[in-house]
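Reopening this ticket.

The earlier resolution said the output was attached, but the attachment link was broken on my side. Pasting everything inline this time so it's all in one place.
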Amino acid sequence: MMRQAASKSKPDFYIKQDGDNFEIKMVTMFMTIEDNFTLGKVFDKKEPSGNMMDVSFTVQYLQCDHFWGR
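Inline output:
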């Protein structure tokens, strides 16, 4: 029964930006994963499996193709 509920569950993503600082949160019925980082700076990330890794994010190109009111 739990597997069926988990397979139909879709995560909710929340992204908050303040300049180059980001907060990304993924929420499911079973867990919440939250990452806070600054673009271009390395940070430690713990995976759900318990493994640790160094991660950094950069933005090379950002484009919005959807315009409201057209």
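Reporter confirms the inline version is readable. The beta strands are 12-18, 21-27, 32-38, 43-46, 52-55. The longest strand covers residues 12-18.
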